Amino acid sequence: MNKSILLFFVTMASFSSFALAQSKNDVIHLIEGPMEVQVIEVGFNTIKYSFPNENTVYSISKHQVSKIEFASGREEVFNSPFKLVNGLDDFQNVYISYNPEDVVGLDPRGELFSKATGVTTLSSINNVKNRAMDKLKAEASMLGANVVLVGNVFQRGNQYGGENQAGNSTQTTFSGTAYSTQKLDLEKAKSMLLDQSFHHYQTHKLNRNSWSPERAIATVYDKDRKPLMFEFDKLIEKEDGVYVSASKIPTKTKELKVIHADNEMVVVMERNDKIITNYILISKDNKYFKNFASRVIL
Fold it and tell me: Which alpha helices (H) appear in the chain, and where do they start and end?
C-alpha cells in the first residue's frame, strides 16, 4: 500500500514538472525590453514567433533582438548592427539596409533623398557614390534615425563628350526611408524640456544640393560674457512626437521637432523642402559649461 501511494506521488510530481515546463514561454529581448513569446523558428534573417495561447505567427528581424531565453534554459545571443544615433555627429553609425524585414516594427522618421555628382568626367565613380551615401546617412541622422531602408539607387558613369556633344560626369542618387529603433519617451522628454534653461550651442544644416552638411558654432554671450540661456516658450505633443517653440532660436518655423533629449543635450529639428536643420541645445549639466567655468573670456 505504501509503495502504491509513493508511486502515485512520484507520478503526480513528474506530471506537474512536465506541465510547468510546457507552460513556460520563451523570452525575446528587444531594444525596448523583453517580450514573452513562443519562438517558432530562428531563420537566417528573421525570427518567427507567436504570443502565448495564440496561433498568429509574427516575424521580426534578428537585428532587433539582442538575446533569446528559451524555455529549455538555453540562451542565444545576437550582435545587432543597430547603433545609437543622437544627431549629425553620429551619422556614420546609421545602418543601411536593403531588406524590408529589417525595419518591421521600427519608428518611421521620413523620406530621404541624396545626390552626388562628379566635378569632371575624370571623377572617381566610387568617391562620388560614397559621398552620396554619406549625405543619405547624414540626413537620416538629422531626422533622429539610425536605420535606412534604401528604396532606389541610380548610378551613372562618366560620359565623355565629342566634338559637338558635352560630356557628363558620374552621378549617384539614393532614395529611401529613415527609421529609428527607439521612440522618444514623452514623459521623460517633458521632464527634461520644461522649466529648464538651455544654450544654443551649434547649428547643423544639410541642403540636398550641397556638397556636404554644414556645422556652425551658434554661441551668443549675454552682457556678463556668459553663454546666453533661454527656456522654451511652449511644448506641443503631436502624433509623430514632441515639438517645442522658442523665440531665441533663429528659425522660420514656429514649432521644432525634438529628435533627441537627455540631461546634457537636446536636439531639435526644422525641415523645409530640401533643407534640414538641427539646433544643438545644451543644458548647464553639459561638460561644455564645466570647461567654460575654468576659462577667462576677455
Answer: 2-23, 125-142, 186-193, 287-293
Domains, the chain, ranges and CATH?
18-77 (2.30.30.100), 88-180 (3.30.110.70), 186-293 (no CATH)
Question: Which amino acid, 165?
Answer: Q
DSSP string for 160-211? ---SSS--B--EEEEEEEEEESS---HHHHHHHHTT--BEEEEEEEEETTSS
- Helix (H) or strand (E) run with residue 34 in it: strand 33-42
Residue 9 cell numbers, joined: 506521488
Mean pLDDT across 106-113? 93
CB 247 within 8 A of CB 234: no
pLDDT attached to residue 37: 96
| CA 156 vs CA 7, 38, 115, 129, 170: distances in Å | 80, 48, 11, 10, 5
**Average pLDDT value over all residues in the chain:** 86
SS3 107: strand
In 3D, which of 277, 281, 284, 4 has the Cα closest to residue 142? 277
Cell numbers that stand for 57 in this block: 505567427
How many Å is the Cα radius of gyration of the chain?
Answer: 27
Phi first, then psi: give them for residue 65, nearest 5 degrees: -115, 130
